[in-house]
Amino acid sequence: MNMERLRQDVMDLAQVGRDTEFGLNRRAFTECDRQGRDWFRQRLAVAGLEVHQDGAANLHGRLEFDGERPAVVMGSHLDTVPGGGPLDGALGVLVGLEVLRTVKERAIPLRFPLEVIDFTDEEGRFGGLFGSQAMAGQLTPERIHGARDLEGTTLVDAMAGWGLDANEALGARRDPNSIHAFLELHIEQGPVLDRRRIGIGVVEAITGLFKWEVRLKGQANHAGTTPMDMRIDAFQGLAEFGGEIHRILEEHGGPNSRATIGRVELKPGAANTIPGLATFSLEVRDTDDRVLKALSDACRRTLSSIARRRDLMFEFDVLSEIPPAKCDPGLVELISREAEAMGQSYLCMASGAAHDAQSMTSVARTGMIFVPSIEGRSHSAGEWTNWEDIEAGANLMLRSVLALAARD
Question: Which of 184, 210, 282, 310 has its CA 20 to 30 A from that of 46?
Answer without folding.
Answer: 184
